[in-house]
Amino acid sequence: MSKGVVFFVPATTEAGAAAIGTAHNFDLRKLTAMRRGDLLLGHSKRLVARTSGFLAEPGRPFNAPGASLAGDFVVYVLDRRPEGVRLLTIDPSDRVQTGTRVQILGIPVTGPHDEDDLFGRVAEASPERFEVDMDVPSDLHGWGGAPVLNEANGRVIGMLQAYFTKGSTSRVVVSPIRRVRAALQKPLADGKGQPFAKFSRKVKREVADASPASGRSTRQSPPRRDVPAYDPKVQGPLIPQEFTDGTQMHLDIEYPPDGATVGNSACGVFIAGRAMALHGEMREFDVVLVIDTSHSTIEPTGADINGNGVIGKPYFGRIGSIFSSGSTDSGDSILAAEVAAARQLLRGLDPRSTRVSIVTFAGDPPHAQNGLFSRGPRRPAVTVEPLTDNYQRLERALDSVLARDPEGNTHMAAGIDQATIELLGLRGALSKPNPKSEKIVLFFTDGQPTLPYGAGFEADNVRAVLRAATRASRAKIRIHSFAIGPDALDGPVATVEMAHRTDGFFTPVRHPGDLVDVVEEVSFADLSEIRAHNVTTDEPAEHFRETADGSWSGFIRLEEGRNEIELSATSTDGGHMTRTIQVSMVPDATDPPVPTELVVQRNRLLEQCLRSIKQVRIAAERDRAEQVRKDLLVEIERERAAARTRAAEQRKRLEIGIDEELDPGPIPTP
After folding, report:
1. What is the DSSP letter of 238?
2. Three-state SS for 128?
3. What does pLDDT average to over the chain?
4. Which of 492, 609, 627, 652 has its CA 20 to 30 A from that of 169?
5. Cβ distance 273 to 251 under 8 Å?
6. What's 380-445 look like in SS3?
7. Per-residue confidence at 246, pLDDT binned at 50, 70, 90?
């Protein structure tokens, strides 16, 4: 398996386009052993195009002896025109000046979009390279090969090669696009390109061996110190950064077993397993889902969260003896979106390695705690379900959260502290602590902290959140925060800082209805990618799903006879591991029994697959019916014309004029 970022430009080929990337981002030795490669979008993984060779002679990674940044590129010939993506225009000018504003296009860390962009200004420029100071400090892991555009005209002037921290921002090293432009003007084989295998000998001679053995984790060798063109120790790491010492990969294929015989199925064979980057022993996770149940979460999301075909609208009116606001469909509220996101996450986790707890938070304003309201003070944060590997209990707990009406203010600090209590097993906890587990909090909120001090004390309420986050950080708890909707994003300091202080991720969700999709991007297994494909048929897995704790599953189609299935996983710091199994397909064979812990996941994916097949069948039947209708209309028109011709001939034979008036005679009587 070989991967890296590419972008598309016009080219004089049958496809009318080519894909451009950096040589150092791809394992060129593996690439020359491949028959074909898939080009997928970064987030959705939708297939855009396929390539089976190079349109220009591949360049050399800039850290190879005697290589340069300008020559670090590859140009792929495409089997078809890329679908659903734009073609970028290469700038014909070779002049890049200090002060030029640039835009860099890359792949976002989280969904739901397939493209992200960053901006900066050229700080240094020379014929062989130029460097850009970013407007904001940025983590650019995975952006190697990203196109760098002149902001003024939107044309490509270079490719991102490396980045490093400089002062208070990030500095990006860019190779000029000049050599790529020249290569496109002289394509191999008059624009047909050459297959990957054609360059096998050249690549073996020029590129150091970095190919991992199947089933074994790998560590990239550090760049050579004698390379004059670029020194990562001084100027910053490659993208992705070199594989760190001590990190190993774990990749298991749990179903089907190696050597299994399976039957024919419309969806293919079910495959499932686990992958993760290891930092010592096998990893266990304790996860607390912290859900905001304050009154504002009663508002509609603008999306059909419960899937009943009706989108809830904002509502304000009398409920009993009081006036209240909310959604005309409570199943489409922000709280419903939080619960749906929690369910989506839960359904992908593996109870063998991951325990989960549910905590809710809201809180009464200070004057309510002094007895003004008859119900008396309530705890601002509550453990609805302690840490457990019984996911059915967690589903019931989420049902109970959704059944209660949202009310109260927003006591974020209490939510963090309650999660910390459960994870550490402190006084008042309902959970038993696991000293070996990695401790994670997923924190959902649609607002800003209004407690414990109440309205008018914004800074004090925020400081309370930061103190709670600091306490969590000292306990080695990571918080991944989700700020949902405009109010949360108008004042995001609390959610941003709780993630930053605990080495977690902050995720803005501008449209609350997107939360269910966005939460699928959560990962605490330190993986950047898991892929599965049938080597025998050269087809990828379908309905493939990766989850936060590294569990994965999907379906893969087989041809009759023996099939080789390959799984590969890549860690966020560049580690890579591949496993292969042999599976034989015999049409009438019975599949091996699916392990009990995988049955639910298999059934969900099977339902998804069958729905897709049904939709395709309905669409095909609709197309056939439409074609029959069109054919019938053509046939009717043809028969109509033929009948008119025969009628004219018959009239002539019978000597009946078209305008001839005939005596109709009397009406016949019985």
Report:
1. B
2. coil
3. 80
4. 492
5. yes
6. CEEEEEEEECCHHHHHHHHHHHHHCCCCCCCCHHHHHHHHHHHHHCCCCCCCCCCCCCEEEEEEEE
7. very low
Using CA atoms in the order 663, 665, 667, 670, what is the torsion angle rounded to 10 degrees? -140
The b/e string for 449-462 (b: 16+ C-beta within 10 A; e otherwise) is bbbbbbeebeeebb
8 Å CB contact between 256 and 271: yes
CATH of the domain at 301: 3.40.50.410
Number of domains in the chain: 3
Which residues pair with residue 479 across a beta bridge? 441
Q: Is the dihedral of CA 493, 495, 496, 500 positive or negative?
A: positive
Phi, psi dihedral angles at 320 (to 5 degrees): 70, -120
| Contact by Cβ (8 Å): 241, 141 | yes
Note whether residue 366 is domain-resident: yes
Between CA 324 and CA 330, with CA 326 as vertex, the angle to 5 degrees is 130
- Of 597, 614, 640, the last residue of a domain is 597
Report the interhelical angle of 412-424 vs 458-474 (nearest 10°).
Answer: 10
Task: Using the predicted structure, report yes or no on whether residue 224 has a pLDDT greater than 80.
Answer: no
Same-domain check for residues 352 and 489: yes
Q: CA nearest 415: which of 359, 364, 366?
A: 359
Distances (CA, A) of 443 to 6, 193, 305, 379, 558: 34, 51, 19, 18, 41
Instruction: Read off the pLDDT of residues 446-505 as tens digits, 9 standing for 90 and up.
Output: 989 998 888 888 899 999 999 999 999 988 999 999 999 888 888 889 999 999 889 888
Q: In terms of C-beta density within 10 A (0-12 exposed, 13-18 middle, 19 or more buried), how is residue 662 classed? A: exposed
The amino acid present at 619, given as its one-letter code, is A
Q: How many CB atoms lie within 10 A of CB 665?
A: 6
Structural domain that includes position 63:
1-211
**Which residue shows structure tokens 């990828």?**
540
